[in-house]
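Backbone-to-sequence.
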């Protein structure tokens, strides 16, 4: 556990020496613990024997073939971890879990509310043996409130959390954001909270605490200026496509062969935009002379710019805008994104070798440190790949492992 001052080696991350017991699955929890692993923590992933994390079955696509294949979804959030198959439905399995939790700095779980308490594995059950434990519980609605026991999935959270009401075209149906934003957002908040609790523990008396993270809370927090716009005006935000409620023009325009995104984020950019498009008449138009007026007269502004960009190719539009110093971009797909020299220079595509599934790639960590780097040290583990190894490190001998296998707490070797 953390406590003594240390001098990290050149490849040790800022969380080197921190042990994370990861009893989570699917996305919100594994995304959180992957970030902790990227930062150097030792992450022990607890998985149900014979089945493991549900995302192992989320395929195709997959890396590798046949029984040795690993789901691309699972791979995306499970690097830098070791996998232990452990049956928490058995008393013997729970006893092993308590042994692991006794030595952990952080415990992360996203079972339904109350399940860990039913098993005798909640924070209150573990804290006496490990007062420094930082225990993070994640769920759809949190551990209190009238909806604490309701099921939650990302698309439900995007709908209930307001995001589907502000995503998509104005006259179109509700649209889900293309990634599981509710899970990833809550996973980021969980990581921040864990880091805050670890820091407070180190600066304080060494006592940990319990953290409660809700997907719905995360969505509510992420509405940010959309929420304060509503609080200030009383007007409920709606869908605007790519447009911004407070800035104009700040959106995608259709060109002759695609789209160009223009970010005229301040009044300083407006004259440059008019120059790039050779439209001195727009610059002289009093309706558009300030951002406030452009927002107020958005319909007329859009009509003028739509017609102008429709006559340009995307490349020509970007060349003209960039030459004038106006922020602009084409709309890239994922293949184009990861072929970007900028991302290549930043190391944002990582490739590792898996012992059975072969080579696999995934996005790298966006956290860049000058002295204690975030790293990819371990491939996403196969189910139970490290069960015996980890338990031996915690003092279990061969006869102990045989006993656990006989009881069904861990799977047989075959």
């Amino acid at each position: 556990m953390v406590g003594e001052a240390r001098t990290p080696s050149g490849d040790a991350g800022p969380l080197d020496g921190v042990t994370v017991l990861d009893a989570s699955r699917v996305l919100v929890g594994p995304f959180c613990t992957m970030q902790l692993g990227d930062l150097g923590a030792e992450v022990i992933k607890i998985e149900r024997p014979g089945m493991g994390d549900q995302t192992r079955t989320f395929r195709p696509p997959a890396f590798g073939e046949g029984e040795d294949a690993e789901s691309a979804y699972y791979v995306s959030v499970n690097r830098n971890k070791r996998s232990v198959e452990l049956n928490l439905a058995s008393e013997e399995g729970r006893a092993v879990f308590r042994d692991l939790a006794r030595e952990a700095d952080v415990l992360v779980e996203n079972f339904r509310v109350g399940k860990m308490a039913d098993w005798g594995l909640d924070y209150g059950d573990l804290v006496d043996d490990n007062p420094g434990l930082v225990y993070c519980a994640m769920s759809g609605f949190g551990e209190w409130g009238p909806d604490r026991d309701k099921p939650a999935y990302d698309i439900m959270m995007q709908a209930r959390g307001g995001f589907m009401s502000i995503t998509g075209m104005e006259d179109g149906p509700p649209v889900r954001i293309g990634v599981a934003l509710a899970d990833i957002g809550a996973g980021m908040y969980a990581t921040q909270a864990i880091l805050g609790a670890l820091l407070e523990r180190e600066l304080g008396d060494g006592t940990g605490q319990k953290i409660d993270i809700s997907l719905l809370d995360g969505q509510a927090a992420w509405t940010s200026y959309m929420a304060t716009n509503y609080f200030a005006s009383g007007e409920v935000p709606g869908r605007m496509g790519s447009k911004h409620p407070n800035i104009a023009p700040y959106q995608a325009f259709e060109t002759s062969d695609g789209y160009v995104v223009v970010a005229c984020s301040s009044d300083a950019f407006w004259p440059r935009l008019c120059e790039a498009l050779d439209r001195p008449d727009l610059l002289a138009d009093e309706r558009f002379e300030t951002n406030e007026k452009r927002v107020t007269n958005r319909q007329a502004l859009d009509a003028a710019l739509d017609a102008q960009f429709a006559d340009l190719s995307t490349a020509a539009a970007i060349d003209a805008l960039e030459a004038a110093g106006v922020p602009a971009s084409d709309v890239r797909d994922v293949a184009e994104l990861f072929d970007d020299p900028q991302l290549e220079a930043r190391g944002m595509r990582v490739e590792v070798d898996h012992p059975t599934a072969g080579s696999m790639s995934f996005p790298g960590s966006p956290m860049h440190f000058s002295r204690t780097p975030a790293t990819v040290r371990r491939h996403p583990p196969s189910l139970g790949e490290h069960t015996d190894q980890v338990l031996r490190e915690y003092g279990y001998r061969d006869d102990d492992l045989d006993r656990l296998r006989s009881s069904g707490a861990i799977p047989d070797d075959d």
